[in-house]
Each structure stands twice: as C-alpha cells, then as structure tokens.
Fold:
Amino acid sequence: MKKTLYRNLRRKIILATLAVALFPLILLGETIYYQFARVYTEKIEDQIKYRAEAAGNALEIFLKERTAILTTIVDTHTVEDLKQPAHLSHAFSVLNRRGDGLGLVDMGVIDETGQQVAYAGPYHLKGVNYFQQPWFNEVVTKGHYISDVFLGYRQTPHFIIAVRALDNGHNWILRATIDSDIFNQLVRTAQTGRSGDAYIINQAGIYQTQPRFDGAILGQSPLDPNRFAKGATCIETRGESATAAYYAGAWLKNNEWLLIISQDSRMENSDLTGTRQTEILIIALGFVAIIFTTLLTTQATVKRLQRVDAELNQANAQLMQSDKLAALGKMAAGIAHEINNPLAVIGEKAGWMQDLLEDEAFKNSPNFQEYQEAIDKIEQHVERARKITHNMLGFTRRMEPRQDDVDINAILMQTLELLGHQARLNEIELQPDLAPQLPIIASDQSQLQQVFLNLIGNAMDAISAAGRRDGCIRITTRRQDDQLCIEVHDNGPGIAKEHLRRVFDPFFTTKATGKGTGLGLSITHGIIEKLGGSITAASRPGQGTTFSVKLPVIVPDKK
Amino acid sequence: MDTFRILVIDDEVDFLDTIVNRLKKRKLNTIGVTSGEAALELMKEQLFDVALLDVKMPGGMDGIETLREIKRIQPLAEVILLTGHASVETSIEGMKLGAFDYLLKPMKFEELLQKMAAAFEKKSAHDKKIRDAKIRELTRYPSRVFEQD
Structure:
C-alpha cells in the first residue's frame, strides 16, 4: 500500500514537472520559429519586390528607348525619303551598326492604306497590307504602338513597335520588329538563384517571354494577372510558408504587360529549414535533459522522503514504546499500591498467628504442625507477592538520577566480579573487551550497576536455561562520537522475533512462572532513558543476543 | 534494651490492631491510633520514643502534616514512615523533616523491629546526651535544680 503511494507520488511529481518544463519550451520554440519564418518571408518578399521594380524600370527604358529612336527617325525624315528602299536600308543599317544590341530585326514604312511601301530586313515583306491588323488602327489614333508578342507571317515570336507621322495631311507609319531573344535575355537578367524566375505575361495571362521552368512563350500561364493591381508592385504567395512560392508582379507598357519575378521557397528556404532542424534538435536535447533530470531528482526526492518517513515511523514507534511504558508503569504503581495495603494486613495477621502459636495452649494442639505449615506458606507467598509489588513500584520509581563521576569500565569490572561466582557455577565464560581510556562521564553509578547486573544476569539465565556448556558472554565498550557504546553479547539460544519486540515491555517474561517478574528489562530501559541514553536488543534465534546500551558522554562538572 | 513507648498511626484498622498486638506480645509498650489528629492529642498528654506513621491516609491530616506536628510537639520522638506506594519523594521529604527512616508496606516484621530498635537507640543516645549536659550543668550550678519547670 505504501509502495503504491510512493509510486503515485513519483508519477505525479514527474508529470507535473514535465508539463511545467516542457510546455513553455515547446511554446517558446514554436513562437521563435514562426517569428523567424515571418521575418524570413518578409525578407524574401522585399527582395523580389525590389527586383521586380528594378527590372520593370529597365524594361520600360528598353521599350521607350526604341520608341524614341523610331520617333526621332520619322520626325527627321520625310515619307518620300524613307519610301526609297535604299534610304530605309541605309537608316536601318546605321541604326544596327551604331546602336549595338538594339535588337531591331527589320523596319518598314506603311502608308495610310496599310500598305507596306518600303521594307528593310531579312524577310520579303514589301507590299504586305496591315490595314486589317488591329494594331494599325491603334497606331493611327494613338501615334505609337507596341504590340504583344506574336508569330505573325514569319512564324517566330516577335513584337513590333510602330510610330505614326504626318506628312502633308497624310498619315504614314514606321514599324520596327524587335528580336524576341534580346528581349527575353533582358528579362532573364532578373532571374536569381536556382529557383528564381522572371518572365512577362500579358493581360490575358499569355507568356510574352520564355519562362525558365514550366510553360512556353505564347502559352497560357497559370497565374491570373487580374490578381495583381495595376500600376503597383504586388506580391502573391502560393502554398504554406515553408514550401511557398512567391510572385512579385510589376506592370509595364501602360499596364498591358506584367513582369513576374518568382521565387520558390522550397529551394530558397533551405536556411529556414536548417534553422528549424537546429531548433528541433536543441528542443529535443532539452527534452531529454529535462526528462532525465526530472526522473533523477524525483527518484532522489522520493527516496529521501521514504527514508525520512521510515525514520519518523521508527521515532514514533520509540515514542509509543515510551508512552506505553509510562502508562503501564502508572497502572502498575496504582495496582501495587492497592495490593500492598491488604498484603500488609495479610502478612501481619499471619505474623500474629505465628506469634500466638508460640503459646503453650497451641503447642499442644494436635494440628499444631498443620497450622505452622499453613502460616509458613502464607508468609512465604506474601513475601513472593511483596517482591512483585515492590518491583512494580521500583519500575516507576521516579528517582532523580545522581550525577556521579562514572568510569564505565570500572563499573563493569565490579559487576563481573559480583557475578563471577555464579558464572563459574554455570560454566559460563565472561569475556570483557573494554576500550581503554574511556572518558569519565556524569551519570548514576548505582543505577548503571543495576542495568549491567540485569543485562549480564539475563544473559547468564538465557545460557543456563538452554543448558549449554560452552556459554560465553562478551562485554565490549567503545566510544562512538559523543556516545559510549556498551554491548552485552551472549551465545545463548537467542530471542524469537515476535518476542524481541516486547522484551522491554513490563511483565513480559519467558521465564517459568515465579522465576521472573518481567520487570528487569523494563526497569533497565527506564533507567537508561532517564540517563539520556538508549538501549536496543538484537537477536537471531540460535546465534545469541546482543543488548546495546548507548550513553551520552557528559563531562562531569569540575568540583 | 528496655521496653520503649511506641505510637502506631495508621487508618487501616486491621493492620493497626495486628501490629499493636504483635508489638505488645513482644513486651513493647504500644498504643495505636487511626488518625493524625488522635495521635497529636495523645502526644500532648504523654511521651513516646518511637512513632510508626503511615504516610498516606485518606481524609483528615496526611502523614507529612502529622509528622510536622509530631516534631513540633515532641521533637525528640523518632518517627519511622510507612508507605504502601513508591512515593519516595514523600519519604525523602519526610526524612528532611526529621523522620528516622521509611519502610515500604508490606514490610518484614523483623526489619521493622530492627529499625525501631535503631531509632530507639538513637533517641536514647540523644536523651543521654541531654541528661549528661543537665548533670554537668547541675553539678556546676546546683541551685538551678529549683529553677526547673
């Protein structure tokens, strides 16, 4: 039952400690991780947003530059001049030569009717009519136009820039084709890392440049451009934080094209993943350390508790023993007193009868002998009862212990001398093993003598009762810190375990009726306690018994 | 040893009578009373050599009180205390008040006789000293014979 109690206690302490220690650890870990992840995400978003803006500006300049060149040409030339193929070719070749990497593929002059009247470039497009093309109207009304990427007659992706000029009340148009590759390369410069991408889609979500990963130019992009507000740089996130893909969009070309810079955090977030793993490792180590420490300290605490509990129980048992002895003593004294008075009357009456028997008249009585014997018996048994009651009274006698200068070894030697004769009769060897130079202590000489007489006498009784021939009683003294230890060990039959607990109880005896009162050890116990010491008995049946007396070393006052 | 005057004080009548009888049978001049009050009355009238006093008497004067009074009335009378219990303190207190000795009931009769004899001897010796002193005084100042009360 006690075991379960301790097990429950241990479990409760462990659970409570772990809960209190681990919960904040987990909470802290999670919080730090999410804070870190948020900051990290913000950093990535800021980065790609900035890149999108920068790349957007570069592309705008690219387009504006080319538009400006065409505008300059139409403003500084007449249509008649440029209509002549030689002049157009000259202008085209000068442009390509001077403006390195302008990316112009060809140039054409278109009249009011949409007819391409002059053409310079690798294709044979002179005479093609653009009147039906949607951009034609647009360029006429707006003055300049940049198309989406398309395949056109030549079946390769390209886009055109067209500007309108007015000559003698007639509109004419200069059109240039921009090499898609050069434009693609420019867009690609915004790509970063192993997973970064940069491409342009139009309002309908059609790729205008070749994306790095999935998709092809003029293919449909999975992104919905309407999600990105016009005229601003926006961020879109897809997926969960650890595996998210980030998209920054910047609108170009009067909000017709959307430059997308994307970053896949599955690749970019490897720092974050590493951080998470480090954190998990630290927390796991913390867990192990906390659990280990908790188990260890709980184990130690409960063990300590158990030990204290056991000590307390022992102290309680001793206290109970003392209480029991005190109560029994009081009762014994009461009984002894009540019996002593009638016993005294009986004794005196018998004595009186004895006195009367001396008279001549009685001496001649035929039953004189019978009377005499009866009276003797009465006196004998009054004497026996008297011994018992006087012992009982002695048991509670509250004699203040005297403060003699006591040499324990000397008292023991005296006691052994007193008992020497009896020991020889019973063929018992007395073996004193006394530590030399024990301190003189302040105690009660005669009461201690009484104690040793009782203990050694009991030992002799035990040995002779068992009828042993090799009886031996060993008496040892030694100093142990601030106590003197006196041990009386006999090799008698020992005391049964169930009797050992009760040896100090008053009236407990295993001797034959009339041989012992069962008070000797009680009185001994009382004396030793009064002298501030303690007495314990240890025994194993068949191996003898050891009584250990411990007395405090009290230095006598100097007289 | 001559017969001497003994007063036994005990409230236990059976005990008292028997002790008195036994002492009388030994030709000792013995009187028994059952209370402290009666003992004091008696002591005011006649002298005793030894008093045997039960320490614990329920009702009336207790033993110690009686002892104190006896020592006041007859300071030279020796008192032996009798007790049925282990109140050694009471006995020691009694001894401090001038009691000769104490005995634990039930006592051996022989022991009682011995103690009484010792008490009487002490008292006799004391009496003798007083007598000697008086004789010395009288031989020195014979006229003082007439001043005696």
